[in-house]
Amino acid sequence: MNQLKYNEKKSYFALLKVEIARQTKIGKAFILWKRRNEINWQRDSMLQEDFYLKHSRNINFNYHSHPVRFMLDYIESGRPGRLTGMWANRHGAYNMESGVPLYDKKIIEFMFDVPIEQYLAGGKRRSLLRRAMEGILPPEIQWRRDKLPYTPDFHNRIIQKKKS
Q1: Are 100 and 87 in contact (CB under 8 A)?
Q2: Which of 103, 90, 125 minimizes the C-alpha distance to 19?
Q3: Where do the structural domains in the chain lie, given as residue ranges?
Q4: Who contacts 133 (Cβ-Cβ below 8 Å, separation ≥6)?
Q5: What is the pTM of this model?
Q6: Are 128 and 121 contacting, i.e. CB atoms less than 8 angstroms apart?
Q7: Contacts made by residues 151-155, CB under 8 angstroms, sequence distance 24+
Q8: Which of 45, 142, 159, 160 has its CA 20 to 30 A from that of 151?
Q9: pLDDT tens-digit profile of 22-76?
Q10: Contact call for residues 153 and 33 (beta carbons, < 8 A)
């Protein structure tokens, strides 16, 4: 926590709230209650109602209590390979090549076997991959902190960045 506090320049309370409290049932319930009136792209579909009703029964919306087991089952099912195959076929139609090295089964198995502490070593998020890129990426790219996860407003953020 000390390293994370130093690197992210946040208070212990803020870290406790983000890293621990929001992972509890009470924390998750509070977040849902707080965001109850917000549009949620994962919950609120943009699909036409009749299409959604017809196909939603084939989608599993249930919470997975054992995410590691769920991910292992997902990997072993072969679905990720079919997905990357679909991308390769689509890209081939446009004379493009594609590859998703992090979908390699050996890499995924390795990532599951790595001790959890390695992902946040030294209080640095994404620490395992950042350290693996030592000598490959320039340090200003390797250790940058401005790369946020993809979100539905990604395009709006890009446009705003261009304007400023």
Answers
A1: yes
A2: 125
A3: 1-63
A4: 142
A5: 0.43
A6: yes
A7: 152/41
A8: 142
A9: 788 888 888 888 877 776 655 566 667 787 778 777 766 666 667 778 877 887 8
A10: no
